[in-house]
## 1
Amino acid sequence: MIDPSVVYKNIIEILDKNGVDYKLFNHRPVLSYEESAEVQKEVGYYGTEMKCLVMKADGRFVTYVTLQGNKTNFDSVKSFLEVKKIKLATAEELRENFGAEPGCAYPFGFDKRFDIFVDPKIYNQEWVLFSPVLPTKTVQARGEDLKKVFGSLENKVSEVGDFNQT
């Protein structure tokens, strides 16, 4: 089992190492976009929510980082990855492989064997919001700074703009 507090420290170290302009907010637990919108008003952070999907593609985990509100076209993902079967990771798989609860998947800081696919539109956002694995914390970071972060990772990172339904 992966310890979420270790993952959290790793995420913050990655942000610091890459000189990311970010703010960290503490708040009541948030496990959905609806709760996040409420807490956003209570705590005062702002920006565009990132959506981090953990998918299982023919038995291997991959992540897709995009913006909240985008609907993922799983047929496009399946075709791009040249796999027969793709599905969202289960709650148990998220906990076991990422140390995350549903609603707290995070964009980086996990094992390097997991490939990351990034919607480059996140880089155009002034501020993006994401969970650093813990449901009581939110990171508000400059979108343009995340390009440096993804470029610094040991994971295989690919920019893809065609995983979203239009």
Note: Helices lie at 4-17, 33-43, 74-81, 91-98, 143-152.
## 2
Amino acid sequence: FIFSKGNSDLLHMPQVAIVGSRNASFGAKQNAKQIAQALSEAGIAVTSGFALGVDTAAHEGALQSGSGATIAVMGTGVDQCYPARNQRLYQQVAEQGVMVSELMPGVGPHRSHFPSRNRIISGLSLGVLVIEAGLKSGSLITARMASEQGREVFAIPGSIHHPLAKGCHYLIKQGAKLTEDVNDILEELESSLQFHYSLLNASIPASNESQADVSVESKTHKSAPKPAPQSDLFEAADEHPILQLIGSDTLTPDDIILSTGLSPSQVLEQLFDLEMAGNIIAVSGGYRRLA
């Protein structure tokens, strides 16, 4: 079960997680606040773990924007404020954002809860930004889980002499996107945001369709691709347009949507059919064709 306290509708928004050290420097906390505020103003909810340091700064930055959309994934029950010094922030998130937890209400903090909740932080988000982290830290656990879940990983570099920069430098060496400002995140997530809003648009009743299209275009600066005509049946498996795209390299649903022009619902339905038929397999980061 997932318990929530606050505005649970925010969970439908595209999210970017911001995580980092509890003992973050002043500069790291300022970076977290500024990027969180910019993400929120761009229509993206900011997700974090409600810990001291970078997490707190990220929530505060999101709350400073007009929308104030922030999601706090708690290592306690949603009715518990931990750390206690974040009491004021707890009230603000309850009023303007939402808190979620897999722990029962009334459950207090325990060291085993926090690594476990990290997979929820990354799982909710399109990508994870790491700001100051040691080589052995919960933030790197979150980044690893994000990678395993097919999410994007971003990291802000720091001084080579700063021990809390070493985790970020390690992630960048492993392929995380070096991040200097919010535009680095928005550019990398452009297709994922388009996919997300297309799915959201598909679930909106027809009477709101024109209004939803305007909202999608204003937030992604691109309209969703128009579905291409297709036949439901193919004489041979190799004639399937999606199967022709998927080879030994892993492709995400976003890649397939952009390449085929099919709608998100069509792509997801056909991926399911191909997987059930044994033509493809779901792997970390997307789908791969089976011989």
Note: Confidence is low (pLDDT under 50) at residues 204-236.
## 3
Amino acid sequence: MRAIVLREFGPPKQLVAEEVPDPVPGDGQALVEVEIANITFVETQLRSGRVPNPAMKPRLPAVLGNGVGGVVTAVGASVDPRLVGRRVVTTTGGSGGYAELVAVDAALPIPVPDGIGLREAVALLADGRTATLLIRSAAPAEGETVLVEAAAGGVGSLLVQLASQSGARVVAAAGGERKLGVAAGLGASVTVDYTKPSWPDLARRRAGAVDLVFDGVGGAIGRAAFDLLRDGGRVCVYGMAGGAFAELPEEEVARRGIEVVHTPRVT
């Protein structure tokens, strides 16, 4: 089969198609013929070698890719044979998705209902699971004010919709008028452009104190969002698109009674 192999960290041109042996599904595994491979922001960091955590750096050569959509073509021992022929989306366990075939734990594939395209299903795979876990963990409630950073991005746009559906008032922080318009169209009541230094003051004037922050940016933006929380509020830190996690001093978190919401790791 063909796979996209990374032998040297760097720009996208380092991803090269090569012939590699076909995987064989082992006990408890399913073999998926890949039609669409997802590419996430984290995978671009892995490809470049500029990872936020050294432990994340893959050993080369590597086949990246943690999310795919396709058809199950074979299963290993102890797996229900009725899975064969099903259209599915699945994670791969961390790597191997940039290939024509991938063997995965048979518990991972999610059947795609008729009427939903694989492209759309794969687009929701990573960000949809993340957003759902975040909402379940942080549990925004009716009447609360929720600040979502990167509100027009993959996870952020879903958080805006899910938080709005819970009855919360959503403050969307994003960069530029186009993205703010997207967030408003998805249900945000207040929008602020966090590329402008005055955005925290504007958010405070328009929305008052915030009950819950979804921090997927980190850095200075994440810290400014933390400062908008009311005492006793909640912050859910799930990303560092800005390059580093926000600095949240433990003593200040404790003094203000802030709850730091932890979510299960998504693989």
Note: The mean pLDDT is 93.
